[in-house]
């Protein structure tokens, strides 16, 4: 998979890709990340990428021309499955959407800033708008990092079998069951006996039940009506 990220602050974005699972995914060739600094697509001497909005109003708006130049350049080189704009008024990022995007070959992610982008960018280039939650961030960069993390870990081969994303919370609409590691008893706090029993079919049954109970308690909205009782 190839991800092109368009931003005015590439420095804000780089560190999540320089450690742990994302770093390894890049090193192993499962994903290529390309950062594009919008200022490199500006022709005037001031390197202006934002301007006042027509009609008046507080806040600056990202201009259409540099974004057009950047996206058109990328589109001339390859086909993109989706051109995503990170914005608080987009579709809420959920596991199902991450699963879908993780199957794409090439995507562009445009990070918004200031009061957003000229509407013509959204009308003529963007194919999907994504929000990571109902709050307003200073820019789309942290949202883009969240989106990339959520999709890259799903690419086959990125996680080992033993840490497969299939057992993540939210896959199957269930939260993950509780997990424990050594020591089996700490300050009198004991690990549930079943987990040290070696009875793997029973352990599996226990985990399924715990996942269900935890979901019913913490996120009943994930369950179907008939599962809630
Ligand atoms: N940009 C600003 N706020 C955002 C949000 N909540 N999600 C995605 N991008 C954003």
TrEMBL record:
A single Pfam family it belongs to is tRNA_m1G_MT
At which positions is S-adenosyl-L-methionine bound? 112, 132-137
> Is tRNA processing among the key words of this record?
yes
Primary localisation category: cytoplasm
The UniProt subunit note reads as follows:
Homodimer.
Function noted in UniProt: Specifically methylates guanosine-37 in various tRNAs.
- NCBIfam families associated with the record: PRK00026.1, trmD
Q: What is this protein called?
A: tRNA (guanine-N(1)-)-methyltransferase
Taxonomic path: Bacteria, Pseudomonadati, Bacteroidota, Flavobacteriia, Flavobacteriales
The primary gene name is trmD
């Amino acid at each position: 998979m190839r991800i092109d990220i368009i931003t005015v602050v590439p420095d804000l974005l780089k560190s999540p890709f320089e450690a742990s699972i994302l770093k390894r995914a890049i090193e192993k060739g499962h994903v290529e990340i390309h950062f594009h600094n919008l200022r490199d697509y500006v022709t005037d001497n001031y390197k202006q990428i934002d301007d006042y909005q027509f009609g008046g109003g507080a806040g600056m708006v990202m201009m259409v021309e540099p974004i057009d130049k950047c996206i058109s350049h990328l589109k001339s080189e390859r086909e993109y499955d989706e051109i995503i704009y990170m914005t608080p008024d987009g579709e809420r990022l959920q596991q199902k959407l991450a699963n879908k995007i993780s199957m794409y070959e090439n995507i562009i992610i445009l990070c918004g800033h200031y009061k957003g982008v000229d509407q013509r960018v959204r009308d003529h280039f963007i194919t999907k708008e994504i929000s990571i939650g109902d709050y307003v961030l200073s820019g789309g960069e942290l949202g883009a990092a969240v989106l990339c993390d959520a999709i890259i870990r799903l690419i086959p081969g990125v996680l080992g079998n033993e840490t497969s994303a299939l057992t993540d919370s939210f896959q199957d609409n269930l939260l993950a069951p509780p997990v424990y590691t050594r020591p089996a008893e700490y300050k009198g706090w004991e690990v549930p006996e079943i987990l040290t029993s070696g009875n793997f079919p029973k352990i599996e049954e226990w985990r399924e039940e715990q996942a269900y109970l935890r979901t019913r308690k913490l996120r009943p909205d994930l369950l179907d009506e008939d599962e809630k009782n």
